[in-house]
Amino acid sequence: MESNASLKSDKELTTKKFLITGITGFLGSTLAKLLLEKNYQVRGTVRDKSNMRKMQPLKLLPNLKNLEFVEADLLNSRSWSNAIQGCHYVFHVASPFPSSYPKDESEIIQSAVEGTLSVLRESYKHGVEHVVVTSSIAAIQSIGKSAKSHYDENDWTDLKDATPYYKSKTMAERSAWKYYNSLPKDKRFKLTTILPGLMLGPVMVTTDFTSGEIIRQILIGTLFGIPKINYPIVDVRDVALAHLKAIELPEKSDGQRFICCSESHMWFSDIASILEKNFAKYGYKVTTRKVFYFQVKLVSLFHSKIHTILPFWGLYQTYNNKKIKSLLEINFRNPEQAILSMVHSMIEKNIVPDLIRYTKL
Q1: Cα separations (Å) of 253 from 6, 33, 192, 339, 355?
Q2: Of 134-138, 174-178, 229-233, 357-361, which range is least confident?
Q3: CB atoms within 10 A of CB 184
Q4: Do residues 112 and 96 touch, judged by C-beta distance below 8 A?
């Protein structure tokens, strides 16, 4: 392993300001917690500061004196100048993640691409030192005829068979690298992209985290059935740490993409089994019934949310995480730990009922 001689110190980073776009989201709030625990100065972007449902959970973050908010919107390029001015580091986390197909895929694609480019342009304009963009394995994984069994950071999603979300993540990241490479090498900011798998783990917010909704529905038995879908799992805390490590180790991270997921890839049936083992005894009606492709295909005619999973039915694809473990020194948590911590935090946040407490009483 390479030397840590270039590791930026806490003392150095406490003099800097970090911007987190989409701070009210699952990853954004987790990243804010990590930075504030280190007593760093944090600015977070939100679309509407008056939306108390989204803002209230952030008031539980540590060192609130170091946290400020500014309004910005992915489709309003003018809003980003005020957000980025005065910041040294930018974590561009915000990105549309629909749970169903949009009527017009250009809506989600334009929001992701233009939002990313607006952040990068203003970062260059205001002399930001380093930008870390949250991409996704959606920018690597291909389906249909282009599907592979194993992926690394050299792969890019084939857009011919891609879903709207996969197109948005792929095109947004490609646009980021194209813009970065167009800048003068001696004047441009450093750029790193982090590509997480399915993010689970403890939640700080109660809205807008699709992975949490999946776990919630399995736990309380409202999911229509367990589909034959497989995902690489990653704890949200490890994803947050990877973003910070990119800043701490700029010589290793500049110009790099990093797949961010554990070695464990889990079928939905595996996740359901873990939930049943740990929570059914308390009275949770965990969904364990498997469904067949033709059943899901039929239901998808009436529910667009379900249609999004069909292209991934039965696919088992693995991802090489050696690069992030070596260069950014990330040791991934066990996926089961991520699942269990997510449920316990959802109980604590009243996202699901606390049957454990009533059982113990």
Answers
A1: 11, 22, 6, 29, 44
A2: 357-361
A3: 7
A4: yes
Question: Based on the structure, what is the number of domains in the chain?
Answer: 1
For range 320-348, the mean pLDDT: 97
Helices 105-125/164-182 angle, 10° precision: 20
Measured CA to CA, the distance from residue 268 to residue 114 in angstroms comes to 33
271 assigned to some structural domain: no
| Predicted confidence band of residue 102 (pLDDT cuts 50, 70, 90) | low
Q: Which domain holds residue 254?
A: 10-200+232-263+318-333
In 103-251, at which residue ranges do the beta strands (DSSP E only) sit? Answer: 130-134, 150-151, 190-196, 198-200, 230-235
Q: Read off the pLDDT band of 104 (50, 70, 90).
A: confident
Using the predicted structure, report yes or no on whether residue 100 has a pLDDT greater than 70. Answer: no
The region that residue 176 occupies, defined by phi over 0 for left and psi between -120 and 50 for alpha, beta otherwise, is: alpha
Which residue carries 């001696």 as its tokens? 186
Entry field: residues in the chain: 361
Query: Could you give the percent of the chain with pLDDT greater than 90?
Result: 77
Is 166 among the domain residues?
yes
Strands 230-235 and 265-267 come out as antiparallel
Q: Is 221 inside a domain boundary? A: no
Domain harbouring 237, CATH code: 3.40.50.720
261, pLDDT greater than 90: yes
Domain membership flag for residue 117: yes
Secondary structure E strands in 175-220:
190-196, 198-200
Residue 175, token pair as written in the block: 């646009």
Mean pLDDT of 329-341: 96
- CB-CB contact of 260 with 238 (8 Å): yes
